[in-house]
Amino acid sequence: MTHPSKTLDIVALGEAMVEFNQTPGQAPDEAPMYLQGFGGDTSNAAIAAARAGAHVAYLSRLGTDRWGERLMDLWQRENVGTTTVLRDVQAPTGMYFVSHDAQGHHFSYARAGSAASRMQPTDLAHWQDTIASSQWLHLSGISLAISSSACDTAFAAMQLARNVGTQVALDSNLRLSLWPLARAQACIRHAVSLCNLFLPSLEDMTALTGLTQAQDIIDWSHAHGAAQVVLKLGADGALASDGTQRRSVPGCAVHARDATGAGDCFAGNLLAQLSSDHNLWDATAYANAAAALSVQGIGAVSPLPRRDAVLDLLNKGTHA
């Protein structure tokens, strides 16, 4: 079978949503105010990659409502391809709210029955050429969790990617509000067996496996099929492994205001660097710097940095 050349760097699959993010600095007795933006982990990663200079497209469903139109406008402004975004007249575009307190940021979702949750494996008929033309297919635990049919679609897309020589990247992004732990464990374990690059967080993997040590999590990830692993360690940076060697890549010392979307920023920038033939270690350092910049703003999309800002931070060499 003849496949198109790899004209795309990254194609991401999942759910994009409208975001309402609580603005900081309000007194406890004040009614909360929210800044309207956009989110959805793989959409954030796609935009982050596009801002880093990658050629990117998105695979999803949206409602035919006003919010769906605004997301389409967003992707077009951000140079993310939208010809593969299907519109569903029977379901709405999802949304979520982010609140903040001393314990961090907290998510509340209004996504049940959303258009993206109605993705079906038959949607791949619209997407197979795009997947075949991309260097990377990027998904997450949330791509699997939003519905059984979306999970089936994600697995089918991953298998298709493997068949056509497209590498698969998976971010763990565990959200136990979306599915039971036992199902999450089984589905993510299977997804890891289908991916070339696994991007877990320490917190996610402790919940999924009971492991608490970074080296043990790398071992688990390789044992379950991932050729490359980058374990995200927040302010401490990341531990990256190509299966032969492991390197700790330090984080950057910054004042964090809002961590919403930081892991997505990391994933998108990492894949953008790998797509342009940077090695895993340099790509991880770049992704760390990009994520450090993103946490200094508010919301998931607005703070995603441009390439010049990331290079400037890297040149300063400021580590945590």
Key attributes of the depicted protein:
11 helices, 10-stranded mixed beta sheet, 4-stranded mixed beta sheet, 320 residues, UDP-N-acetylmuramoyl-L-alanine:D-glutamate ligase, 14 strands, 38% helix
Any overview of this molecule?
The protein has one domain: Ribokinase (UDP-N-acetylmuramoyl-L-alanine:D-glutamate ligase). Helices cover 38% and strands 23% of the residues. It has eleven helices and 14 strands. The chain is globular, with a radius of gyration of 18 Å. 50% of the residues are buried. The mean pLDDT is 92.
Quickly describe the structure.
The protein is 38% helix and 23% strand. With 320 residues, it is of the alpha/beta class.
Largest sheet: 10 strands, mixed
Number of strands: 14
General shape:
globular
Q: Tell me, what is the CATH class?
A: Alpha Beta
CATH topology: UDP-N-acetylmuramoyl-L-alanine:D-glutamate ligase
| Rg estimate, integer Å | 18 Å
Average pLDDT value? 92
Helix count? 11
- The CATH architecture can be given as 3-Layer(aba) Sandwich
Number of domains: 1
**Oligomeric state:** single chain
Strand content: 15-25%
Helical content stands at: 25-40%
